[in-house]
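User: Hi! I'm working on a homework problem where we have to compare a predicted structure to a textbook description. Could you give me the structure for the chain below?
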Amino acid sequence: MADDQFADALKLTRRDLLKAAAVGMAGAAWGGLQSDPATGSSAAQGGKGTAMARPEIVQNPIQASVDLRDMLRRHIVERSLACMEEAARYRSRCLEDGRTEEYRRKIRAAVRGFYGEMPVGENGPPVRAVEVSRHAGEGFRLENFLFDSFPGWQVNASVFVPLDYAPPYPAVVIPVGHSGKQFEDYQLPAQLFARCGFLAVLFDPPGQSGERQPGNDHFADGVRSYLVGESSSRYFVADALRCIDYLASRSDTDLSRGVAMTGVSGGGATTTLAALLDDRIAVSGPSCCLSPLSDLDITQCYAGCPETHPWRRYAEGVDEVDLLCAASPKPTLLMAGESDKVFRIEDTRRLAGEVKGFYQAARAPERFEFYPDRAGHCYSLRQARRFARFMNLWLLDHPDRPLPDLPDSAFRMLPYEELRCRPCLDVHIRSLTLDRAVGLAESRSRSRLQEAARAVAGAKEETPAPEAVAGRPFRVWTHFWQQLLLKPEQGIEMPATFLYAEKSPAATLLHFDDAGRNRLLYRNGPLATAARFIDRERQGFNIFAVDVRGWGDSAPAMYPYELAGWGSIDRCLAYMSAALGDPIMSMRIRDGLAALACLRSRPEAAGKPIAVSGCGLGGLVALHVAAIDGKVDACVLWDSLVSFQALLEAENYVWPADAFLPQALLHYDLPELAASLPLRVKILRPLDGTGNPLSAPEIDDLSRRASQSIYEAESGDVGTFLEKLLAGM
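Assistant: Happy to help. Predicted C-alpha cells:
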C-alpha cells in the first residue's frame, strides 16, 4: 500500500464506515489494519493488490498473549506436572542411590498426613457388630453385619463364610469401588474367595449405588471435607481398616499372618492407600485403578474424585506409582484390563515396570506381579482366581494349595435383598463434616485473623504492582474508559476495565464479580451508576473492575471428560489445585491483591480512598483482599456467600467446588473475618449455601454476633448505595 493510501485509510470516520457498509464495502474498509494491543496503534496489513484498511479502535479489549479460555487450566496442569516430575526425579535418585528406605518413609509419612487420626486399629473402640441376616449359598454362608467406623457411621458388611473348609479361616477384605456390592464385580469374586477357603468381607463405600447414599455423594459431599482440613478419602479407607478390626473380633478367623485386601477401580484405590497405612494388610491386589497421575488426572483433566486428591498430594510428590513403590516389599498383585477405557493398559504396564524396580531393590522381585487381564474395567473371575493363588502363596505360604475346579457358571448373582444391611442413614460425610466445623468454631481463636487469611491465601506481606499493559483511554461522557491486562505471574493475565473520572475523583471502587467484570457496568448497571459517568453536574468516581483468573473473559473452556455427569470444570480444577496445596480461590485472592496494588500505582487513584467490592464469589475475594491488605477504606459485598459453614449446612448447595476453600475453617469463617476488619463493612443480601437470601432474623443474629450492623437483608439499589459510599469517603 502506498504511503498516501495508508494515510487516507487512517482518516476513515465512523460515518465513512457506515456508508461503506450500506453499499457492501465494510469488509474492504476493515481489512487492512491491525490494532497493536500494547499501544492501541494500527499498522497496515495489505495483501497483494489491496488497498484495504482496518480502522483504529482504541476502546477494544487488549489481546492477551495467552489463550484466556485455557489459561487457568494450563497454569494448574503445568504446576501439577512439575510436582510429578520432581517426584519422579526423587524416586529415581533414591532407587539409584540405594535410599529406598528413606523414600518409603517419606511417602508413607505423606500418606498418613492425608488422614490424621482415625478411629481404627489401636485408636478405635471395640467393635460392636450387629448381625442383620443370614442366607445360605452354594459353598458359602452369607452373613450381614453392621458396625461403626466413625461414631454413628455404620459399615454395611456382607461376609461370605466358607462351608467346605474348617475354621479358622484366612480373610480378605474387598472394598467396593464407585458402585455397589450387589454387582458382579464384587459379589462374584467374594463368592469365589469363600469357595477357595477365604472368609471374604464386602462393603459399600460412601454414596455410589449402595445403601449409604444420602449425604455421601463422593463428589458433592466429598468436597466439603476440604473446608475442615480433611480428605473425604478417610471415609473410604477407615471403613476398610475397620473391617480388619471386625475380623479380629470374630473367633472363626485366623489373622496370625495378617489379612489380604483387593478391589477394583475405587476399591483398588482404597486398597493401595490402606496397604500403606496398616501393616495388618499382608497382601494387596488392586485392580483397574492405577496409571500415572500425569497421564490421566493431570494432562487429560479427568474430573476424578476429591478423595483421590487429598490436600497437597501433588505438592508432597505422591503419584500413583509411589503408592506401590512405597509398599514394597509387601506382596502385591497389580491387575489391569487390557481393554480398560479409563486406565489405559500401556500406562499401567509402564507403572508396573517402575514398581518392579523397587521390589528388586528390596531383594523381593517375586513379591510383585502384574496381571493384564483380557477384560475391560472390571474385576473378573479370572482375576479372582489369580488373586486366590497369590493369597495361597503369600498369605498362607502354601503355593500348592489347590483351588476348587469351578467354572464361571458355578457362580450366580444373589438377589440384592440378601445383601442389604439397612444401615442408619442419619450420619454421613455431610453431617460429620458439619460436626467438625461446629467444633472448630467453638475452639478457634478470634485473633490474628489478618495473618490467618494471608496464610490461607498464600499471600506475601506486601504485594507488588504487577506488570500491566494498558490500551489508550477512550472518552465516554464525563469519564475515560480504558482496557488493561494485568500480569500478576508468569502465564496469568487478567483483563481489567478502568472507568475513571475526567476530574480528579474523591474515591475509587475496586470490584470483583464471578460472572464477569463488566456485567454490572453494562447498560447503566450498579457500577456505572456509582461512577456517575453521565452526570456533568457532580464529581464522578472511578471504577476498576478486574477479571481474576477463571472468571469473566478468562472462564475456562470445556474439556472432553467434562461430558460425564460427574465431571465439571470447577470440580476438576478445584480438586487439582487442592492437591497442589494452592486452591483456585487462594490464587484469586492473590490476584485481587495484585489488582489493588496496580490500582494504587495509578495516578488517578494514588493517595485517594479506595473501597473494594464483590458480587457472588467475588465477594469472597473482596473480603479477603480487604482483610489481608488492612488499608482500604471500605468493603461492600452483595449476593455473596454468607459463610463457609453455610456450604456444609445446605443439603444441596449451588456454589461451585472452588468455593470450598481448603483449610479455611481451621482458622476462621467469613462472618468472623468481616467482623474483624478495621474499616467500614457492609454485606447486602447475603446468600446461604442453596443460593437463597437469609431471612431477617438470620440477618439480625449475624449483626448481633458481629457487634456491628454489617448485614442487611435487602440489597436495594446497589448503585445508589455505592455512590453514597464513595461520596462519603
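For your comparison, note the following. Residues 1-49 have pLDDT under 50 and may be disordered. The two ends are 54 Å apart (CA to CA). Good luck with the assignment!
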